[in-house]
Predict the structure.
Amino acid sequence: MEKNVLVVIGVGGMGLAIARRIGSGAKVLLADFNEETLAAAAEQLRVEGHDVTEQKVDVSDRASVAALADAAAELGPVLQVAHTAGLSPVQAPVEAIIGVDLLGVAHVLDEFARVVAPGGAGVVIASMAGHFAADSMPLELAKALSLTPTEQLADLPFLAQLPNPGAAYSIAKRANALRVQAAAGAWGQRGARVNSISPGIISTPMGAAELAGESGAQMRQMVGASATGRLGTPDDIAAAAAFLLDSRQASFVTGTDLLVDGGAVAGVRWHMGG
């Protein structure tokens, strides 16, 4: 009996949690740029009984993403795609964030729209930072981020003027949600759905690095002002992804963003004077 395929791009805390939660019974294709991290995640899931294949991918390179999409289609019907790969402001300069967080998502949306099976679904990990960016983003800029062809996206003039990695990250993450909206039609033509998730501050190695960085104090204030008063866990995001990737439970949900932040955005807007 042919197995359905789950593709997980980025096998850090959230990606691994998603693979573990919904990978049972599927052919799991793991992809990451870091070969050591990829091999360790694949072996861990195999020990737990999952059917795993791995492939290195550079999401900033369209050809690399296309090769991954083709490999996924060769394994069987591609029913679930979770794209979690990304860089945070403390990890990378502006150019790298644009390449991975902005272009990487655009490449995945384009290439997996070619191969996703009818009844399939995709999830892209954005960020609550994109919600804050949306508050002050002009409509013309939002349209450019949504509709500019992927091969021209990095050449948008305002991207060259971004002052720091934090600004690049916020813009890229807002673009993720916008491009998911724009891509919903193409995925729908395949009989598939696509959505994004905007996590808040999640307890992962990336989250820990941000908390230790220059914006860590502000992030802790946001957690304190949130309704839940805690950091999120990778399992919190995996639960949201499991819902959105389940075409029985979420068959009428596509082209939207799910904010999974423990109430941090609400806290900033209504309790911290944001």
Notes: The longest strand covers residues 116-125.
